[in-house]
Protein: Beta-glucuronidase C-terminal domain-containing protein
Amino acid sequence: MGVLSLTLLKLHIYVLFELIFLTTVAYGLEPIINVEIPATARLRSSIPASPLDRNLVSWSIQGRDFPAFAQTDLLKNFFSVLSAKVGTGQILRLGGAESDKTTYSQYTNITAKQFQSGYYGPNWRNVTLGPNYFKSFKGRYATGTKFIWCLNLRDTTNQFEAAISTAGAVLEHFGDELEYFEIGNEVDFYRTKGYRDTDWSAEKMFPQWTYIADKVQEINPSKNIHFTAGGFANAAIDVSGDFDVPGVIKAGFKGARIPWYNMHLYPQSGCGGRPVSMANLLNHDTLFSNVTSYIPQVLAAEAVGAQFVIGESNSVSCSGRPGVSDTFAAALWMVDYALLSASIGIRRVFFHTTTKAPYSAIIPKNYRKDASKYSAGFLPLAYGAYFVSEIIASNDNLLVQPIDGSSGTDYSSYSLWDESNNLRKIVFINLEIYNSTTGATSAATDNSPVYVSNAPRGSTRVNISTPWAAGEQLSLIRLQAPGSNSKSMVNVSDFTFSNTNGLPNRNVLDEIIKVQDGGLVVFDILASEAVLVQHYREASQNPHPTSTIPPFSTSTGDQVASTTSTKGPTSNSSRLVCSPFMVISILLFWSLLL
Structure:
């Protein structure tokens, strides 16, 4: 070989390795996570194992706002889709801060249309309901919906007339659709709000609460009316006095008419413009600390034969925060939050919604704010709820538990088992933040500053050792978006809701992979993405809703759309198609030609 040829060869090799180095730095080698799932579930003895409640994700709407939601088909059809998927109607709490300002008068002349527009009388400090309030949403909500109504404990006038008169109207109009009553909203704040004296406690509350409950029962003596106790604002890690489940039980709140206890949880406070962040929301360690602090509440409720729920919750208190609550990050957080809650025995989590809030799953109608105009439609949280419905969907009762050794600040994972201890589903959530300019705005909420991630979007190879047999077909569906900060272009494996009527707009496209030798399941997951893995036959038995048939119907098994993949992800708009290894191979081939 001549000196010139040898020099050129050395130059080619140098250039090749320099390009390999630069490519590796730019893209990063794909991280790998290895997980082993045992042949049987390892249940923790300290927490009673309970099947997943099919209403794990439930809903809370201010009572005054419900007519506005019922005015359009968005909420009705959204609930219908979720109900068809999980096999039961949705649970809707009508309550919130306005509950303790609400009274009822059969003589009010406010029309149904006024209620739908948000008018509740000339005194804005109070919410006055009348017969037309119930007419304003009659027949306008999904079949099978059950309701919880929060009564006014603040107003003691005429022996709690506001609460008792409202309860009578609720019983008359909802009938068997009423699940139970709640009495008072965030009563542990009554002292600071001036609603009660400084010595206010659960013990002091008990006779007042009992008086209202007894009077409500007298309205319909033949019906066993149920109640939930609690509804406290302070989180379990910040209990005030005896305002927690052990405290109210000690004060006397127990018995057959109280099958549920509840407390509220907002992981970040947005009140008064306090700083909040997406990073805090997506930190699994922080979530784990918050949620597991409720274990004593769960155990206290179950010790008296009742169950515990998070009665009101969302990403950021005081209506949420643009740029956090209305982003795809909130959808990923919802999935992690709901499954972690279920794993410690929290039966339901009620996500709070109003007509004009960034943390809402749905904006029911167009509205103006200052000089801006906003359009009705779905926010990312709705897709988190739909993804959870896919996780829950099964003909059998399922148990959920975190997968040992596969969770950290940026990752979480869960296994789902049937009552015969068979592994049925796997959920993996990549909580790593990746911000994009694509889909970063939405016509439904405020625009936020866009902080774009400088590096390419990361991808992780997940290797899971399972008890599943080699060769079995698996379905993968993904909760996905262009980035953590996306407010639009969010979907569940291509599935979307119509922002016009709430019906399915595009169908779920399952990815099909096979279990490898030794039960190994392999797939890739992007930063800011969640993946559900289950047997393909399970997906066929619990088919996805389709855009071609009415709500409350689903596709048949042979209508499940799918695409085949040998190891994991198929190409789509949010996925890097060109890997560093592909680039290296191309460069090597090019070098050999020179």
About this structure: Residues 3-24+582-593 form one domain.
